[in-house]
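Record type: ASSEMBLY
Status: queued
Input:
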Amino acid sequence: MKTRVLIVEPSQIIVEGLVHMLQDKPNIKLLSPEYNLQYLQERIVAGKPDVMLVNANMAAQAVKACGGKKIGVLGLVYQYVDPTTRSLFCDIVDIRDSGVAIVDKIVRAASYSSKPCEPTTDRYELTKRETTVLIEVAKGLTNKEIANKLNVSTYTVISHRKNIVSKTGIKSVAGLTVYALLNNLIDENVLE
Amino acid sequence: MKTRVLIVEPSQIIVEGLVHMLQDKPNIKLLSPEYNLQYLQERIVAGKPDVMLVNANMAAQAVKACGGKKIGVLGLVYQYVDPTTRSLFCDIVDIRDSGVAIVDKIVRAASYSSKPCEPTTDRYELTKRETTVLIEVAKGLTNKEIANKLNVSTYTVISHRKNIVSKTGIKSVAGLTVYALLNNLIDENVLE
DNA sequence: AAAAAAATCCCCATTTATGGGGGTTTTTGG
DNA sequence: CCAAAAACCCCCATAAATGGGGATTTTTTT
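Status: finished
Output:
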């Protein structure tokens, strides 16, 4: 029986590429792809995919959308993905993977789907303020500069930073920067 | 007359995607794509492309390979590309661009190619030691830790860091981390 | 072999950051 | 309205980084 695959990916190039690489495989039935998350839940109900191949940046929403259903969720990765996000997926498809490798991962994910991808537990979450502070840290501002920008005392900024560190477990500015980058909190233009 | 386009991109998915998006366009003639840089120069001589669409990570080599020839070089970008690399290209094709946008950029790049893409001048360069220090900084190590790892005194590490700052103009650890990430000096696994 | 560049090392004063502790005031959700 | 969470503020000691200033020894290039 064919594995039903739903691709969820905003890039037309990649969707086209995947479709043309997978469409004639004997053990795969491609559902028509989704380019965004808007109607994902409806698509899942209607299409009954066994496996979803999802842009890694849409990780959390996609996993939520399949809400307990037995769907193997594969992350589609362009470049950098943090371990936390990675752990949401059964497996990772890298954009540089060969066609054979991708088919292989899809088939394996389908068998995975007997145990549904349970949303990972105990995920910390940063508060609004912590997130804004993190962003400024990742932009390279000092505590004093951040304090001025946010109109609070440096004590407050330091407090938030302590919380960020204890929640994420990341101590260094470098690590926090990567974290912010990976979570799309900042982009390449931070390099003044 | 059709614009001759050479795609240089290691990812099969992306190449397939681009080929299927571009192959039937009336004003574009696709040369068979290259997946790596090995025979690029020969391919350029043989195929006489007007435009090259090149993975941005291969920027420097690709521009060098077209050595003064009148070729419009477009950078193909997955995610993050630093301004310096960006400046090597006539224009940037983002992986999320639509088919129409890509065709448009190709056509414009073809007219560009009357003035050949001259490699940017005055590029500073980090020395070997500076680069290794930068990498460790971007991994989040302290000067002391770096000194131990490299078996030099912290004074030396600090010296190197001063040089890095004066050469790159980037003062913060956050900025240096982004820089290292963009230049593929470190990868996602830095998040312990 | 001489000059230039890279790599190494040192000191000092000042600024920032870290890690620990303690709080109060707003906001938010039930 | 009340409890919990978030946001805010403060102090201290220590660690680390920054921004100046030097210097010597290796390597590399000419």
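Annotation: Chain A touches chain B through 46 residues (CB under 8 Å).
Annotation: Confidence is low (pLDDT under 50) at residues 114-123 of chain A.
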